[in-house]
Amino acid sequence: MRTKHLSILLTLLTLIVFSAKAQKNDGKSIIEKHKIQEDSDDQFVNIKMTLVNKKGKERVRSMKWTRKTDELDNNSTLIQFKTPADVKGTGFVSIEYADREDDRWLFLPALKRSRRISSSNDGDNFMGSDYYYEDLDGEDLDDYNYELLGEDKFNGIECYKIKAVAKGEKAKTSSYKHRELWVRKDTYLIPLINYYDKNGTLTKKLTSSDMKKIDGSEKYRFMKSEMVNLSTDHKTILSFDSYVFDQGIDKEVFSKRHLEESF
Amino acid sequence: MKCYVSLLCLLLIGSNTYLWGQSTLSKIEINGKVGIDYFAYFEEEEGSINERNQVKAQFRLKPSKAEHVRYLVDAEYRGDAADPSRSWFLVREAYLEYTTKYFDIRAGKSIVKWATADAFNVVDFLSPKDYSDFIDIEDMGILNLGAKLYLNDVKISAHVFPDPMLHFLPDPASRWTVPGAPMTYDPETNRLIHQKFQYMESRLPESRMDKMQYALKVEYQWKGWDLAIGYYHGMNRIAWNHIDSRKIGRDTLLLSVTPYYHGWDMLSFEFATALGSVGLRGEGAYFSNFAYDGQEIAKGNLDDPYFQYIIGLDKTMANIVGENNLQLIFQWHHEITKGGYDPPANSILHYLRESVILDAKLALGVDKSMSLRGVYSTNKDSLIEGEFNWKPEEGLGITLSSTFIDGRAETFFGQYTNNDRVRLQIEYSF
Question: CB distance from B349 to chain A under 8 Å?
Answer without folding.
Answer: no
